[in-house]
Amino acid sequence: MSPLATPDIEESVDLSAAPLEPWEVVVWNDPVNLMSYVVRVFRTYFGYSLERATVLMRQVHHDGQAIVATGPRETMEVHAQAMHDYGLWATVRKATR
Predict the structure, then answer these.
(1) What whole-number distance in Å separates Cα of residue 86 and Cα of residue 95?
(2) Cβ distance 60 to 29 under 8 Å?
(3) Where are the domains of the chain?
(4) I need a labelling partner for 71 at 20 to 30 A (CA). Which of 20, 38, 82, 92 fits?
(5) Full-prediction pTM beyond 0.85?
(6) What topology is assigned to 23-94 in CATH?
(7) Cross-strand bridge partners of residue 68
């Protein structure tokens, strides 16, 4: 066999990638920020409509938390840091659904 020849090898390679697990940004209620400010942050940063931002703010206020974004972990970490920069309490977690 010449040095450039390759032996006949049968290999089975699975090239399918594992699905990306979604992550969530959770904004938590705090005793500091006004509800109107939270709505403004959601509208300014995420581009949510007044209605959507208000629904999320009410979830934060009444339920103590709201999921404001879902996606890849790195992106969600950027969003959580942005919420911190606006003075909101936020965490990143694996999506539960």
Answers:
(1) 23
(2) yes
(3) 23-94
(4) 38
(5) no
(6) Ribosomal Protein L30; Chain: A, (3.30.1390)
(7) none
